[in-house]
C-alpha cells in the first residue's frame, strides 16, 4: 500500500473512536460550505476517493469513509429535487421557475464568455444574450422572488433571484471561466459543479498559504529582474507577465506528492523555462549565470539554455518526489508526446496501471497549442491502451500573442486557443494570471480532477508577455496598443502584495523583505527553490551506468542453445483450447511447428518471433507498437491471435513462463509524429530491453520527421540522452508506387554522424533475428533504424536454418554465398543492400555469369570498414566495381555512403572507380505504373551484372 496523504489521513487518531461524530460533523459542514472548515480539513476532504474506490480499498477505517461518502451522496441527491420554495406557487411562478433553471444552466455553459480572465482588459467579448434576464422571460420585478436553486451547490433550497444571479456571477464570471458542460459524463460534471459552486470559485485561504503564494511570485519576478539587469539584451524568453506559472507548478508538485505521486515529469517550450529550472527544480542560480557568461563546458554540441532539461528531488507532504524537466528543441509542441512516453515508462517500471505514482505536466504556448497538429495527436492518445498515463495536466501560458501574431482571425479559427482539448471532453479552466488565488484554486481543482477521473485537464493561464518574443525584440512595432497597456500594468507580484497588505495579511515591510531576501540569495548563488532535497534517494533514479561509454565493437552474444531454442519455439505456437484460430493463421502456425522440427527452413516472421521470445526468456522486457504490429502489415507476424469464436485475443509470447518480463504489444492509432515521439520518450527512460516502433509502410515515417531530426538522431549529442529505440521501416521496390516503396533511406543516411544511429538493411531471417537480439543484449543504447522488407517476408530464397539462429551472429557485411563463384575468377564486384540482392543473383544465374560476385552491405552506418575490407580482399583480379540500388540516384545510400565505400575500395583497387547502377534521379521515390517499374528494374539489374 503506497503512502499517500489519504492513507496517512485514515490512519490518524482523529478519525477513530469518539472523534467520529465530530469528524462527521466537520465533513457535513464541508459539504454545505467548504469555506466553513479550516484549509487543512478542506484539503483532506477534497481528496476523498469515490464510493467505488472506497469500497474496493481494504483500509482500517473504511466504515468511516463509507459514512462520509453516504453523507455526500445524500447531499448530492437532495439538492436537485428539493422543493423548499417559500413563495406562493402558481402556474406563472412554475414557468418562471423553469426559466430560472435555464438561466442557471446558461451560466454554467456560457459564463466563461463573460468572465474577467484577461489581465490587460483587451479581450473584447460580444454580449452573452442568454446570461440576460430578459432572454429567459425574467425581469427586474422577479429579483426579489425566491426560487428553487435546482442543482446548484449553493446549500440553499430557495433563494431570491437577485442572490442566485449574484452568486452565479461570482462563481462563473469572475477571474475564472469554466468550460466543462461539453463533458458527457454526468458524474464528472456534477463533481466539477460541486467543487466550483460550493466555494463560489474563491476558497478562503489561510494567511500562511497567501504568504507562500507571494513568496513564489517574488521568486519568479526576482529572477527575471535579476537576469534583465545583469545580462541586458541576452535572450532568455522570460516569464514576465506570466509569473503565476511558478506558484502553479509548485502547487501541482506539492499536491501530487500529497496524493501519492513519486515522480512528476514536465514538458515545456522556451517561455519561462529558465524560471522553472531555478525556482521549481532548484537549479543553482550560479550555474545558470555561468551559462549566460559562456563558462559552461560540454564535450558535445550542447544546446541553448532555454532548451535544457534538468532533474531534482523535492520534499512534499507525501514524501520525496523526483521532478524531471524534459529536454526540448525549438519545435514547440513536440515535447508533449515525449513526456507522455517517459511517464508511461516510469509507470510501467512501478507497475502502476492507473497512473497514480507518476504525473505528466505539459506546459504550452497559446499559439502553438492552437496551431500545431501534434497537440491533437497527443490528446488522442490520452485514453488509448498503449499510451494512456492516467491524465495529463496541461497548462497553456496564454500570452495572447504568438510571436507577432495577435489577431484571433490570424492565429486560429476557434474562440479559444484551448478549444482543441474539447475533442476528448477535457475540462478547460480559463484563469486570470493576475489573480494568484484564483490560479491556486484552479490548479488544485485540475489536479484533483486528474486523480479522480484519470483524464486530461487544461488550465488556460491568461496572462501577457511584458517584453517581445525574446529580449532582443521591440514588440510595440507590431502590437502598439497592447504594449501601451502593458507599459502601465503593475506586475502580478506588485498587485498581489498590495492586496495582501490591504487585507492585513502582512505589512509592506514584510513584502519588501521577501524581495530583498530573494535578491540576496541570487547574489550569493544560493538555491531559491523551496523544499529542494539536496541528497535525493537513489532509488528514485534509473541506473544508466551499465550503458555509458560502451564501444561500438561490443556486439554482445546473440547465440542461443538450439535445444533450448526449440523448446521455446514450441511455446510460441501453443494455443490453448477454446481459442479458435483463423484458417490462414492456423496454417502459418502449423508451418512454424515444421520449422521448429527442422522440416522447413525458417522464414522472416518466425525469426522475428523467436528473437522476441528468446529476449523475453533472458529477462529483457519488450514494448512493440505500430499501426498493424500485432498481425504485421503484410500478414507475416500474427503475434496476436484473434479467436474466431468470440473475438478474444491470445498472445503466445506472453505465456512463455510465469516470471517472464512484460511484453507490451499494441496496434497504435493512426499517428506517426506523436506515436514515435512517445516511443522515443519511453526508450530514453527505459534502458533495459527493447522498444520497437514499426511503420505500416516505411515512407509513413515522413510524418514523424520532426521526431527523427530533433530527437532520435541528435538527442544524444545535444543533451547526452541515450536511447535504444528500434524503428522497423518496410522498404523495397515491388511496383507499389511512390507512396509505398521507399522509407527514404537517404534522409537517415544524411543524418548519420558521430556514431549517432545505426542504419541496417538485413536480407535474411537469421540477420533480423540477430540484429534484434543484439540491440537488446549489448549495452550500447543508440537508435536502430531497420529498412525491413515486404516481398522478402515470403521469398523462397530469403530463408535461414535453426542452426544459423542458434549459433550465428549479426553480420555487417555478407560475402558471396554461391559455391560456383571462385574468388580468383571474379572480374566484377557488385555491392548492394536489401532486396535487390535476390534480383541480382537470379539474373546472374540466368546469364551463367561466374565472374561476378555480389556483396551485401547489411549495416550502412556505422560503416563496417574492417568487415568490408575483409570480405573484399580475397578478390584480387577485379576489373570493375558497381554499387547497385533500387532507389533513384539522388536517393538511397549512394551519395551518403559512396565516400565510405571508397575509403576501402581505393585502398584495395586504386585504379578502379566505383560505378552507379540504379534508377535515374527522380523527384518521386518510385514509378506509379507496374509496367514502368518492371522495365526500370530489369534495366538496373542488367546494368549491374553485365554493364
Automatic annotation (TrEMBL):
The keyword Oxidoreductase applies. One of its GO terms (cellular component) is oxoglutarate dehydrogenase complex. Transmembrane segments: none annotated. The keyword Oxidoreductase applies. GO terms for molecular function: oxoglutarate dehydrogenase (succinyl-transferring) activity; thiamine pyrophosphate binding. Its cofactor is thiamine diphosphate. Residues 602-795 form the Transketolase-like pyrimidine-binding domain. GO terms for biological process: tricarboxylic acid cycle. Keywords: Oxidoreductase, Thiamine pyrophosphate. Its EC number is 1.2.4.2. E1 component of the 2-oxoglutarate dehydrogenase (OGDH) complex which catalyzes the decarboxylation of 2-oxoglutarate, the first step in the conversion of 2-oxoglutarate to succinyl-CoA and CO(2). Belongs to the alpha-ketoglutarate dehydrogenase family. This is 2-oxoglutarate dehydrogenase E1 component.
